[in-house]
Design a protein that fits this description.
single chain; alpha+beta; eight-stranded mixed sheet; two-stranded antiparallel sheet; elongated
């Protein structure tokens, strides 16, 4: 029934369209039709769109059920098969693209920090950089009060790329912080560092525990007021500060101490990240032992291996609590209160104190587990020694019994022989 109605409508519309075309063509002057092409100047009713609409209507009518209520509900239902992307997804994609590119457009540069080894040979590194003639060594200094060992090397790129300088801080404990370096130059520096690394880390671990932070410059007369940057000649001179995960340096002056403070906090954070990953790997390597103990199986590890695992834990605890500055502020900031405030602010942002406390708790638990396993293995070893001693004693008793029986039978033979000899006489 519906299909018949559509056919009638199609024929009626086609007849109307032909009549309208004839009436429209008669109104066009002959002079215009002679000099101007008809299709390019005069537009007829769009019959193509009309045919497409009629085909869609015909297809929809043939596919709907015969129930009239269902037909109405289907005709009014929205087209759910559209391939258009929702606006929320588009916004999410735009947010994902935002980041380093958007910050660069706002005038921000990048700080990239890596921890690639347990220690750097800074003396040989300094000589190699001088021979390379790509970076100029500005400072090679000690950060402790005694000044016994120079543990930080600060260099600047000789060749300018853009208006912003490119600086590098090398820390003896195996960390490097690069200011305003692109990815290609970062890879070149990391490759160059390999020959001066002592006990290098795995490359995937180095990449996963790296850190990238933005920084920019503020006018010399700007101050931070409730998150806003205010510039005025009447306010006090600006100071470098850290806010919302971004470093702000003052322009027009030497920012060495501010850059070193930010770099020091960054190197501490990524070094702690390396130690956290090391501890996680240690925990994973000891997990099967707890399963064996829970199921009552024999512990599948030797006493020498347990001793080595315990040594790893104690060495890690020593590095965290005694050889590093995780539990206290470095001596370098003893008489530099402004820099100390910056350092503590960045450390609080990376939750260094809380992470250090969590690591010590994990290490204590691992030490208890190692001691328990070592005690269990020692008991098994002592039991095995006791059984060996018992077996040796039993063997000795057996030999004594054999000797006794041998002496007894020898005496009986000798006495029998004597009786035979005396009877013969």
């Amino acid at each position: 029934m519906n299909f018949a109605r559509i056919l009638i409508r199609q024929r009626y519309t086609a007849i109307t369209l032909v009549r309208a075309t004839q009436q429209f063509s008669t109104k066009i002057p002959s002079s215009i039709s002679d000099h101007v092409p008809f299709k390019s100047k005069v537009s007829l009713p769009n019959t193509t769109n009309f045919k497409i609409k009629m085909q869609n209507l015909e297809a929809r009518t043939l596919t709907v059920p015969h129930n009239r209520g269902a037909h109405k509900s289907t005709a009014t239902a929205p087209n759910t098969t559209s391939k258009s992307v929702p606006l929320s997804q588009v916004n999410n994609k735009r947010k994902k693209r935002a980041g380093r590119a958007d910050l660069a457009a706002l005038g921000f540069f990048n700080i990239t920090a890596f921890s690639t080894a347990e220690e750097y040979d800074l003396e040989n590194l300094l000589d190699a950089l001088r021979q390379q003639e790509l970076y100029d060594a500005k400072k090679f200094f000690s950060t402790d009060n005694l000044g016994l060992e120079q543990d930080v090397l600060y260099v600047t790129a000789k060749y300018q790329v853009g208006e912003e300088d490119r600086d590098i801080f090398f820390f003896r404990e195996g960390s490097v912080v690069m200011w305003n370096f692109n990815d290609i130059e970062i890879n070149n520096v990391l490759s160059f560092l390999r020959m001066f690394e002592k006990e290098p880390y795995l490359k995937p671990l180095v990449r996963s525990e790296s850190e990238v932070m933005p920084y920019t410059y503020i006018p010399a007369s700007a101050i931070d007021v409730e998150g806003d940057i205010v510039s005025s000649a009447d306010v006090e001179p600006a100071r470098a500060f850290f806010q919302s995960g971004k470093f702000f340096l003052t322009s027009g002056e030497d920012n060495f101490f501010s850059k070193y403070t930010f770099s020091n906090a960054l190197s501490t954070s990524i070094k702690l990240g390396i130690w956290e990953a090391t501890l996680d790997r240690y925990i994973d390597s000891m997990e099967f032992l707890t399963n064996d103990m829970k199921k009552g199986r024999r512990i599948r590890i030797s006493r020498a291996e347990v001793l080595r695992k315990t040594g790893e834990l104690l060495a890690l605890r020593h590095v965290i609590n005694l050889s590093s500055d995780l539990l206290d502020t470095p001596d370098f900031y003893w008489d530099r209160e402004e820099l100390e405030a910056l350092y503590l602010q960045v450390c609080n942002y990376f939750s260094i104190s809380r992470r250090t406390k969590v690591m010590n708790e994990k290490i204590n638990h691992c030490v208890e587990l190692a001691e328990l396993i070592s005690h269990n293995l020692n008991e098994a070893h002592n039991t095995r020694l006791e059984w060996m001693i018992i077996i040796l004693i039993m063997i000795e008793v057996g030999f004594e019994i054999i000797h006794y029986l041998d002496r007894y039978y020898v005496k009986e033979d000798d006495s029998g022989d004597n009786h035979v000899v005396s009877a013969a006489h």
